[in-house]
Amino acid sequence: MACGADKDCSYAHKIGAGTGVLGIGTANNDVGTVTSPKGRQIAIAVFVVGSKATLEARERVISHIAAAVVKAIE
């Protein structure tokens, strides 16, 4: 999530990940709050489950979702 936030945003978040089983990621998640440069705040929770993508790819998806949310609240 942090990577998706605008550099001028502040954020607090907690990540989690389950181990892969038979080449499938059991779960990746990130939950937190973001404060935009204009002072708007939002809570974001992203949960990715059952993906065959790499851990890095799943983390990029979470980052892109966070970026889209931050852009939407501006």
UniProtKB/TrEMBL annotation:
InterPro entries: Beta-lactam/transpept-like (IPR012338). It comes from the Bacteria. Gene3D superfamilies: DD-peptidase/beta-lactamase superfamily. This is CinA C-terminal domain-containing protein. The lineage of its organism: Bacteria, Bacillati, Cyanobacteriota, Cyanophyceae, Chroococcidiopsidales.
